[in-house]
């Protein structure tokens, strides 16, 4: 397979994981990088040996011949950069949150569709191996048809030291973290009919909400609770584990802290350690997320090679993004929100 030539835009905190993962993938190579901050450009360029460096994305597109671009900037720049990629007919990966608003996200999907370029949102949590193990168990039908799920992320980990911008936005946990957990709920239990939400801010030092509880009616009749908190101190800090409980017509499944998957189903009870591997460049506790970065980027290369659409295409991600919008509007109005009304 020919090696795809890619460029990375945004050389910040998280992009370093993406650069490590690209180095591990045979079918792709990052040939150029861009960051408007020359210091970040120098650090990442030197660390990964990338000589072609740009402080301006337009200059990057003008000078390089690219098979894809990987956008790892923060959300404010996502729409202009994705539209720039579409205008240059370059397939594009965009970090989450996909856009500041659902209207922006719809416009980005339309721009890429009109240009005929693939668009994938870097929605990596569903690619974590423990979450994939849960999906495989549901596919085996061991617990029958799911009727209830709880997808939970509760922690007191200090995310603000690595990502200081998270403390300053009016929106915090649903937009930044809940978006992943809501996507896992969709991945496991299907698309959503309506969502009811309550949010709170417990940490007085931040601008946005750090606790959110969401109740969802899925289109197939299942009910789920998605609960997220960065204000929950526990005996053993679980960051960044997503805990999952699913009840089905023939049994139950529990993904508990420590990556223990207990399944009680048609063939009895099994307990399996579904810990993610610790990649050579990864570090605990982030290794779960770091492994999922490698998995989603591999998926992208497979999709480009085969012509298949990515699992978390821009169009797919609109359905996750709508849940985020619904959580904010529903928490403000204290009313349930119909998801299809947002997607029309
Ligand atoms: N998927 C995940 O698991 C995960 C985890 C952490 C962060 N993220 C996401 O990754 C994105 C980046 O987060 P971060 O913590 O690395 O942020 P960061 O602020 O550390 O890095 C962003 C970088 O982008 C650069 N940049 C911004 N606008 C630019 C533009 N128009 N052109 C060129 N460079 C530009 C900045 O100079 C900065 O170096 C966010 O959207 C965040 O939500 C995802």
What does this structure look like?
This protein has helices at residues 15-24, 38-48, 57-63, 78-87, 102-115, 129-139, 173-189, 287-306, 314-333, 339-343, and strands at 4-9, 28-34, 52-54, 68-71, 92-95, 119-122, 146-154, 192-200, 211-218, 223-229, 243-248, 251-256, 260-265, 268-273, 337-338. The chain is 36% helix and 25% strand. It is globular, with a radius of gyration of 20 Å. The chain has a nine-stranded mixed β-sheet with strand order 14-13-12-11-7-10-9-8-15. The chain folds into two domains: 4-117, Rossmann fold; 126-283 and 319-343, 2-Layer Sandwich (Dihydrodipicolinate Reductase, domain 2), CATH 3.30.360. The relative contact order is 0.15. The protein is α/β, with parallel strands linked by helices and 344 residues long. It starts with a strand and ends with a helix. Helix 1 (15-24) packs across helix 8 (287-306). It is built from ten helices and 15 strands. Strand 13 and strand 14 (268-273) form a beta hairpin. Bound molecules: nicotinamide-adenine-dinucleotide. Nicotinamide-adenine-dinucleotide is lined by residues 9-15, 34-37, 40, 57, 72-75, 77, 95-97, 122, 124, 163, 165, 176, 289.
């Amino acid at each position: 397979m020919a090696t795809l030539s890619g460029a990375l835009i945004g050389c910040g905190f998280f992009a370093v994981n993406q650069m490590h993962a690209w180095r591990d993938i045979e079918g792709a190579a990052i040939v150029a990088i861009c960051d408007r901050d020359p210091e970040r450009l120098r650090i990442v360029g030197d660390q990964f040996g990338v000589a072609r460096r740009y402080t301006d994305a337009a200059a990057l597109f003008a000078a390089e011949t690219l098979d894809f671009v990987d956008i790892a900037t923060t959300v404010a720049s996502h729409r202009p950069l994705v539209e720039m990629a579409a205008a240059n007919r370059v397939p594009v990966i965009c970090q989450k949150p996909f856009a500041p608003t659902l209207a922006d996200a719809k416009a980005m999907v339309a721009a890429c569709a009109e240009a005929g370029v693939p668009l994938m949102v870097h929605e990596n949590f569903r690619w974590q191996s423990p979450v994939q193990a849960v999906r495989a168990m549901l596919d085996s039908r061991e617990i029958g048809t799911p009727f209830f799920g709880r997808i939970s992320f509760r922690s007191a980990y200090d995310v603000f030291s690595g990502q200081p911008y998270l403390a300053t936005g009016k929106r915090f946990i649903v937009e930044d973290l809940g978006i992943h957990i809501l996507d896992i709920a969709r991945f496991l239990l299907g698309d959503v009919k309506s969502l009811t939400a309550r949010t709170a801010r417990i940490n007085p030092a931040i601008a946005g909400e750090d606790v959110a509880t969401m109740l969802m009616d899925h289109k197939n009749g299942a009910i789920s609770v998605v609960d997220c908190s960065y204000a929950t101190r526990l005996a053993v800090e679980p960051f960044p584990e997503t805990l999952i409980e699913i009840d089905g017509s023939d049994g139950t499944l529990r993904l508990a802290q420590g990556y223990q998957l207990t399944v009680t189903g048609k063939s009895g009870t099994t307990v399996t350690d579904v810990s993610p591997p610790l990649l050579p460049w990864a570090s605990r506790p982030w290794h779960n997320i770091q492994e999922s970065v490698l998995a989603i980027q591999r998926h992208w290369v497979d999709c480009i090679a085969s012509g298949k659409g990515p699992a978390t295409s821009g169009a797919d991600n609109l359905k996750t993004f709508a849940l985020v919008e619904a959580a904010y509007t529903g928490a403000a109005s204290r009313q349930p929100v119909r998801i299809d009304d947002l997607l029309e």
